[in-house]
Amino acid sequence: MDAMQRTTKKKSAPTVAFSVLLWSLFVCITMMPYHRAFAQETPLPTPNPTTLTPPAERSPSSKPQKPVPKWGGNELSVGGLVGTWGSSPQFGLRGVLPLSRFLAFRVGWTLMFHLKGEESYNLSAFTLDLVVRLPSPYKALRYYAVTRLDFWPLWNLFNTSPSVSKISTQPVFGLSVLAGLEGFLLPRVSWFLETGFSSGMVIGFAPIHRPYEAFGFLIQSGFQTYF
Q1: Among residues 138, 208, 146, which one has the least CA distance to residue 173?
Q2: Which residue in 199, 213, 118 sits closest to 167, CA to CA?
Q3: How far is 77 from 66, CA to CA, in rounded Å?
Q4: Which helix (H) or strand (E) segment is 223 a member of?
Q5: Which of 185, 98, 177 is nearest to 145 (CA)?
Q6: Which of 93, 195, 73, 109 is nearest to 146 (CA)?
Q7: Residue 91 region by backbone torsions, left for phi larger than 0, else alpha for psi between -120 and 50, else beta
Q8: pLDDT truncated to tens, each residue of the chain (227 aa)?
Q9: Helical ranges in 54-162 per DSSP H
Q10: Would you say 221 and 194 are in contact if contact means Cβ atoms under 8 Å apart?
Q11: What is the DSSP string of 20-57?
Q12: Chain mean position to CA 221
C-alpha cells in the first residue's frame, strides 16, 4: 500500500503541472477576444486644444471664405461728396479722424454754386464736424449723427464773383445738424447719404448784408475710403 501511494504521488506531480499549463493556455486564448474588445471601447484621451492643427492646415482643400463688407473700424478715411444746399448745387472733399469707437472729428471743404436770378457767384466753405456713430445690428451698415460748424471764408479770388461782397466783407459762420447712413460696399470703401438742415450764415466778423443766405435743407452723398 505504501509503495502504491508513493508511485501515485510521483506520477501525479508532472500531471498536475502539465494540467496547469494547459489550463493557462486555455485561459489566455479564450480571454484574447475580450481584451481586444475592451481596448477598442476604451475612450481616447482628450487632445490638448493648444496642440490642435488649425483648420486651414487640416483641410488644405477647403475654399477660402469671401470677405464680408463691414465697418472700416476706427481708421482714417477720406471721401468725396456731391449734393445740394437749399437750391444750390455743391461738391467737396472731407477727411475723418477717429476719436473713439463711436466718436470722430471730420474736416471738409465744399464749393457751392449759387444761382439767383441773373446773379451768379460761388462760395467755398470749410466745415468742422463732430460725428457720433450709432450702434447698428448690421455689419455692413452704420448710422451716425453730425453737428457741424460751417465756416464761410467768402473767397473772391481774382474778383471773379463781385456779388460775394454783397453778403459780407468778412468770413461768417453757420450751424448744421445732419443724420447719415453709411453702407460698406467693400471692406474699406463705403457709400454714404446725409440729410439735415442748416441755419445758414448767422454769425460773422462783419455785418451780414444777406443773413440766412444758405438756410435750408441739405442733402449730400458720396464715397468714403478707409486706410
Answers
A1: 208
A2: 213
A3: 23
A4: strand 216-226
A5: 177
A6: 195
A7: beta
A8: 444 445 444 555 566 556 656 666 555 555 555 444 444 444 555 655 555 555 555 555 556 665 656 555 557 999 999 999 887 889 999 999 999 888 999 999 998 877 665 556 677 889 999 999 998 888 889 999 999 999 988 777 666 677 777 788 888 899 999 999 999 988 889 999 999 999 988 888 888 887 777 788 999 999 999 98
A9: 55-58
A10: yes
A11: HHHHHHHHHHHHHHHHHHHHHHSPPPPPPGGGPPPHHH
A12: 21
DSSP 201-222: S-EESS--SSTTTT-EEEEEEE
**Cell 472733399 -> residue:** 93
According to DSSP, the residues that pair with 112 across neighbouring strands are 90, 123
Cα-only R_g, the chain: 43
Phi and psi (nearest 5°) for 128? -120, 115
Beta strand ranges found along 54-135 (DSSP E)? 77-85, 88-98, 103-116, 119-134
Which residues, 6+ apart, have CB-to-CB distance to 173 below 8 Å?
149, 150, 151, 152, 201, 202, 203, 204
How far does CA 217 lie from the centroid of its chain? 31
